[in-house]
Design a protein that fits this description.
Strand content: over 45%
Distance between the termini: 41 Å
Helix content: under 10%
CATH superfamily: AttH-like domain
CATH topology: AttH-like fold
Number of helices: 0
CATH class: Mainly Beta
Order of helices and strands: EEEEEEEEEEEEEEEEEEEEEEEE
CATH architecture: Beta Barrel
Shape: globular
Length: 355
């Protein structure tokens, strides 16, 4: 059961706040993405707290004209988990489970953005993944689609977020590999397969996710439909859903694909690509929970047309997609995918090469 306290980074276990505990790899994370109705602008923010490592880090990115402008920050947490400010990136919870404000200021990037949920967030099935005796992941996540208002500035050029700017935010907490890798982990080629499709339709939100083993069998999957204004229990969920994905030539990045949820069909047509390394995911330097000392801030600009899709750093992507239902329902959403190692349904073998 979600409560207002779950919108603050004070969790200590993969359960809601009422169940305390501790783990070296414990984390508490905010994630946001947003996109203009014409698909020309995409932005995202991530803020992580690692209470046992005593580290906080945050990242903000905006994609404009084929360049992903990124601000990376990290600082010592100082054992104060309620201070949601890291190197000029801050989050303010205005109304738990509904409205949050983001502020960014640093290295030529600035913004003030307010997120308002379209409905009560969904609580996803608990993610628990073990490799032999080791628990690799054990966490809870809540997800919510919403609308954005505000502005973003890139090197002095100010962009107003127009009416219809939408996106998704989530909150997750629990155990994931964070900080320096465990030196006693077996030296084997890793395998991890993840797909996630939060979609904004005119009057409802649609969510699908899949974690799968190398043979394609799922270890965590579900689809949920949430009408605008829905309360905690006013949504429809099903495991009768599948994503028939295709890949861009020479990469592990998604191409046009089809999502089936029950009897409904939706075509996902990619419009733009966002590299998740800009938010610290799979980044060798700015990976989550790494200790950069008292405070470290860095600007990075990624030319999306020139990066190598086979590098492990570049596997994790979000594709902004035009979404079209068989009934003519149209919307925008994201197709996130991370495919590391073998995955038989897409013909993937080895660490990061294409099919």
């Amino acid at each position: 059961m979600l409560s207002k306290g779950d919108d603050y980074p004070v969790h200590q276990t993969p359960e809601p706040i009422a169940y305390p505990g501790s783990d070296r790899n414990f984390y508490d994370r905010y994630f946001f993405n947003g996109y203009s109705p014409d698909g020309e602008t995409f932005f995202a923010l991530a803020f992580g707290v690692y209470p046992v490592l005593d580290v906080a880090d945050a990242h903000f990115c905006i994609v404009r004209n084929g360049i992903q402008h990124c601000l990376h920050t990290s600082r010592k947490l100082g054992m104060e988990r309620m201070d949601l400010n890291c190197g000029g990136i801050s989050i303010e919870v205005l109304e738990p489970l509904n409205r949050l404000r983001l502020r960014i200021e640093g290295e030529g990037l600035a913004a003030e953005i307010t997120f308002t949920g379209r409905a009560f967030p969904i609580e996803e099935p608990r993610f628990t993944w073990r490799r032999g005796p080791r628990t690799i992941m054990d966490y809870t996540r809540m997800t919510q689609n919403g609308r954005y208002e505000g502005w973003i500035s890139v090197d002095g050029e100010r962009l107003e977020l127009t009416s219809g700017t939408m996106g998704t935010r989530d909150r997750s907490w629990g155990v994931r590999p964070v900080g320096m890798p465990d030196p006693q982990q077996p030296k084997v080629v890793p395998q991890f397969f993840w797909q996630w499709t939060p979609i904004n339709l005119p009057d409802r939100s649609l969510f699908f996710h899949l974690n799968a083993h190398p043979d394609g069998s799922p270890w965590n999957t579900r689809a949920v439909t949430v009408p605008d204004g829905a309360h905690a229990s006013d949504h429809a969920e099903t495991q009768d859903a599948s994503l028939m994905a295709t890949l861009q030539m020479g990469s592990r990045w998604p191409a046009q694909s089809e999502l089936r949820v029950g009897s409904e069909r939706f075509v996902l047509e990619p419009l733009a690509r966002f590299q998740m390394r800009g938010l610290g995911y799979t980044s060798p330097k700015w990976g989550h929970g790494l200790d950069h000392g008292e405070l470290d801030i860095e600007r990075e600009d990624i030319d999306l047309a020139t990066i190598d899709p086979a590098l492990p750093d570049n596997l994790h992507v979000q594709m902004l997609c035009r979404v079209t239902g068989a009934s003519g329902e149209n919307g925008l959403g994201v197709f996130e995918q991370l495919a590391i190692g073998n995955y038989a349904p897409l013909g993937l073998t080895g660490l990061s090469g294409p099919a």
